[in-house]
Amino acid sequence: MYFVDRQLLDERLDYIESLTKEFKNAEGFALERICHMLIESAVDVGNMIIDAFILRDPGTYLDVMFILKTEGALSEADEDDFKATFKWRNKLNREYTTLDRKSMKDDFNKHLSAFENYKSRINAFVENDGQVVTAFKGE
């Protein structure tokens, strides 16, 4: 039997959905925060699924999405879109004073569909995988 905190999973997926809606009009520091949190929250959700279904351990952020694709939770196109945006993580964390926001926004805009599709793909995987997933609340 596998366990996932379904409430937390839903909160994180809803958060990603909210970020994608705010993205189009975001500028400046708000844009940076949205892009950064899209990456971090997508990986957090991916790690929750990997842990819940006892899949192999990822070594990198990109590996999280590779595992999800390999297990059928993501399409190859979505994995490619995530890869194209994840390159910005290091820049957001370490090169923030010289960040090219226009290029970042263009890249995310071009690949935003992966984040927009993420909630439905993850929910479909959880519901259709055939494994028992029990919600619990840690105390």
Automatic annotation (TrEMBL):
UniProt KW keywords: Hydrolase, Nuclease, Toxin-antitoxin system
MF terms (GO), sorted A to Z: hydrolase activity; RNA nuclease activity
The keyword Membrane appears for this protein: no
Native source organism of the sequence: Lacicoccus qingdaonensis
GO cellular component, one term: toxin-antitoxin complex
Protein name: Uncharacterized conserved protein YutE, UPF0331/DUF86 family
Highest taxon of source: Bacteria
Keyword presence, Transferase: no
Family annotation (InterPro entries): HepT-like, HepT-like_sf, Type_VII_TA_RNase
Annotated family: Belongs to the HepT RNase toxin family.
